[in-house]
Design brief:
- The model has no long low-confidence stretch (mean pLDDT 93).
- The relative contact order is 0.16.
- The protein is globular, with a radius of gyration of 18 Å.
- It is 40% helix and 15% strand.
- Strands 1-2-11-10-9-8-7-6-3-4-5 form an eleven-stranded mixed β-sheet, sandwiched between helices.
- It is an alpha/beta fold and 312 residues long.
- It has eleven helices and eleven strands.
């Protein structure tokens, strides 16, 4: 990693840093930071972990599909998507290889809270879990997120609607004992209680200072990955990725790396780098206007090879 001064960071990533009294542990990611090992010849799908994704609602069938397909493309041994029965036929048909399980749905088409025992049973088998993409923000969704937080014992990623339903309950992330990764964009971060009035870096570090068990991925230009007083800024990615669905792809990549047993801090930083680099590759082919989130998934093999080849 390359150490960044506050002045260089502020100039390159258009952020305010004048309110920071001391230089934090601030680094900019480089490709050499994320060497991925080659796989052992004698291995099988369970060697690379079960990834569980809880996602989707009526009207939001794209999010779970993008997350599941990205997870499978990123090396998870078994990708398991649990989604409401209201959209099950759509998601099952569009997932490349994930196991897709229909769950009881509310009248609005989101996952019903009575599905929680079924989810918890699968969480016992999972090495990593994501909840949130396209989940919906109704009362049942809030009950689901709280139920998952209270019982899960594997690394957990909260994204999108799972973050929204936690708004106003700033103590809730602290109840989770296992590694917890939050992936908000700026709007979701503010709803979680984050303060960006004095800059992204200051706001992110203030948040992780209050929640020491949390790894924060604050998405945007120069995505910040923070824990405690440490921050890494990611240089890959660009405006072509500014479309709905891009974050769902990031969730899938991250869940796959966690399921394979990578350290959560490494997995969070590596997933963001891969996600952005896949976007850079796709933008060269499709241009800044025409890139779609599915193009990110299609470019993931090239992005992964850039890291694996460093081991040769």
């Amino acid at each position: 990693m390359k150490k960044l001064s506050l002045e260089n960071y502020a100039a390159k990533y258009f952020d305010k840093t004048d309110e920071l009294q001391t230089q934090p542990q601030l680094n900019e990611a480089e490709v050499s930071d994320y060497p991925l090992p080659r796989r052992q010849p004698v291995s099988h799908k369970y060697s690379y972990g079960r990834a569980l994704l809880i996602a989707g609602a009526r009207g939001y069938s794209g999010a779970p599909v993008l997350a599941a397909n990205a997870c499978e493309r990123s090396g998870a041994g078994l990708t398991h998507l649990m989604t409401p029965e209201s959209i099950y036929p759509i998601t099952a048909a569009r997932c490349d290889g994930a196991v897709v399980t229909p769950l009881p749905a509310t009248e609005a088409g989101s996952i019903a809270s009575k599905a929680l025992p079924l989810i918890r049973e699968q969480m016992k088998k999972a090495r990593a879990c994501v909840i949130g993409p396209g989940l919906g923000t109704g009362p049942d969704s809030g009950e689901l997120v709280r139920g998952v937080l209270s019982k899960a014992n594997c690394p957990l990623v909260l994204d999108a609607d799972a973050l929204t339903v936690l708004a106003g309950d700033s103590a809730l992330p602290d109840m989770y004992r296992a590694p917890l990764i939050l992936t908000p964009h700026e709007g979701e971060f503010k709803r979680l209680g984050g303060d960006l009035t004095k800059g992204r870096l200051r706001g992110a570090l203030k948040f992780t200072g209050r929640h020491p068990n949390v790894i924060l991925i604050l998405k945007g230009y120069g995505t910040l990955i923070c824990r405690g007083k440490e921050a890494v800024v990611n240089p890959t990615g660009g405006p072509a990725m500014a479309k709905g669905g891009s974050g769902d792809v990031l969730c899938g990549i991250l869940c796959a790396l966690l399921a394979q047993g990578f350290d959560p801090w490494f997995a969070a930083r590596c997933a963001v780098w891969l996600h952005g680099y896949a976007g850079d590759l796709a933008a060269k082919e499709q241009g800044e206007y025409s890139l779609a989130p599915s193009d990110l998934i299609r470019c993931l093999p090239k992005a992964f090879r850039a890291l694996i080849e460093k081991e040769t």
